[in-house]
Amino acid sequence: MSVVSGSIAEPVSSMVEFFSFTCSHCANVNNKVHDYVTRNNIQFSDISTNMAPNEIQTTMMFYLAEDAGIGWQFKQAYFSAIRSGMTAFTRATLDTVIQQIQTPKLIQLLNDQGERQKIKNKLLFASQLLNKYNIQGTPSFLINNSTLLEGEDIIKKLSQR
Question: Considering the entire predicted model, what is its pTM?
């Protein structure tokens, strides 16, 4: 995958990653993205492209895990489950992932009515961004709200600047 549009001249201050739970490239870059944004104190958001009816429950659980502060761990556990042969977007896979990352905060949010509305708002926002930027491939990265890049080698390129 290559650059979709633009190049980056200024320092990276914000990054949005558009990813899919079934994308091997997204799985390959997950730790690198996490390390890069943490090391460089970059404002970061994840947007799941998995919005189809059979995928939405996984996306909703991911956003809940993000609100519990364990979104990165959710992604890691999900990618690992898929690599191990589990089927994407099944209840069994989701249950396995939740069991691995379960925290008191996650359990609290599962039962919080206000959290449900937050998740609905996140889904709407994600849909708007996916449409606005016409995201076709993953992983794709929106850098500083102005440059859209695609591919798993983006973090390597950003680190070399």
Answer: 0.91
